[in-house]
Amino acid sequence: MSAQASELRSPDWFRSVVFYELPIRSFFDSNGDGIGDLPGVRAKLDYLTDLGVGGIWLLPFYRSPWRDDGYDISNHYEIDPRFGTVADFDALIGDAHGRGLRVIGDLVTNHVSDEHPWFQEARRSRDAPHRSWFLWSDTGTEFSRARRMFPDYEPSNWTFDEVAGQYYFHRFFATQPDLNYDTPAVHDEMFRVARFWLGHGLDGFRCDAAPYLYKREGTTCQSLPETHRFWHDLHAMMESEFPGTVLVSEANQTIAETVAYFDHGEEFPMVLHFPIMPNFYLGLAENNPKRVLDVLRATLPSAPENGAWAYFLRNHDELSLEQASEDEKALFFRYFPLPPGARVHNGVRRRLAPLVGGEDGSVLLLTALILGLPGSPFLYYGDEIGMGDRIDLPDRDAVRTPMQWENAPSAGFSTLPPDALTRPLVTDPPFAPAARNVSDQELNTRSLLWRVRTLLRIRAAHSAIFSSNLYEGIDLGGAPVLGFWRPNAEYSVLCLYNFATEPQNGSIALPGSVWASPVELLRGGLASTVADHTFRYRLAPRGFSWTMFLARRPPAPRPSAS
Ligand code: GLC
Ligand code: CA
Q1: Can you give the pTM of this predicted structure?
Q2: Do 492 and 527 form a contact (C-beta atoms < 8 A)?
């Protein structure tokens, strides 16, 4: 077995993998109907392997009326017909696996579409078999402590249904009635859904809205013990029936509440690191990584030996500031100039590149940071080429525009003309396909794409270092530089990130365990010298470096002459 294959079979394979999140609908249209599809993703697998990602997270692909981009499922066992068929799905998984790529999907357990036959049947009579699959009320006043997820759109978590003659509960849009987990059949059905797609070869799930399954009066109805038990049981089932598959939690909560989803490795092997994410941006705003450091100190020890924090800079939703304090929000909004209407749901519907003013240096700094930390980085499609957004589109559609493959009409995404696409292209000149596209950046060694690819290659070449859990923070005496060691028995990598917009010079006393002969893993305008076992670094504005030092080993004992 090759080293790579054996790594992929180990129970914590995911730490050596960089994941790529993509909406099928916006990636590549293979049949010219203006909508991205499964054969389209399959046609672009070479692009993904060239980029160096090892895993794909497919956003929802199930049958859905698309009131919430497929997070409103009307049949869990069918592929949305515009994306293709189950056979197309199987072919995609087969090809991906053939290239050593893992594929995870979205498991949406909290709610279904109001067009789902279960809800349609349930609302018609109080005796309907599926009535108890949903939460009903005559007053719509229960669970008043449960927070509303889409406060800009939904005035209440309860909506009156004329057909049912009662209110039904929904944490998200009114078109997404919540399931009632006190009905055992609901629990069983979700296990059936998970088994079905794992049976089709999925390598795991990102679990949507993980904290909200069970509701109890008088509580916030989030992260209840019953809900943890559900995930715990699902994990146990997958470990025994589908070994090597993974679960990633979406829990956008406080640090303490988020960490609990690991449950020491018994519940979620991977937890999306919502608490740290806004701090990456606040680090840029303050030209100082101190908030990032504080969160690392508070959260790195919580990832279990067999688990991983899942880092991300952006995703398909708004950049959530839900957990940020009022001061932090004020700092964010002061620093990042936002066009009118960019704020939504307690967050910001912008992509990475436009947020940082189209400046590749800041994109690379943060990307290199999530690639360097212990855990698993998730990249959002298009951020590797610095794609922009469209604030004029409704809600989070702003950040879900077609992938920009070429400088061509419809950006090489589809053969249909731009005005026939169901989701329009970015038109803002600095971010539009003419300025940012895959094929031009592939030819330019100074492009963002080329440099992101290089980072992924280096991370893969030093997988033993970067996929371990070992991490030692470095005290840089208040310098606006984040520094840490990624050590192992053979060698260590020193990672440094300058959050300031001024160059930084400084020195680091080398530990006795390494030889004082550095090898730069990146050539990024860094000059370093070593004297007296002290490493002197020079970092460009928003520059970063990864430097390797061989381990000093005790001399091997001489064979005794006997
Ligand atoms: C998650 C998804 C989001 C969706 C919501 C409701 O937060 O990321 O896109 O709207 O769940 O399913
Ligand atoms: Ca299509």
Answers
A1: 0.96
A2: no
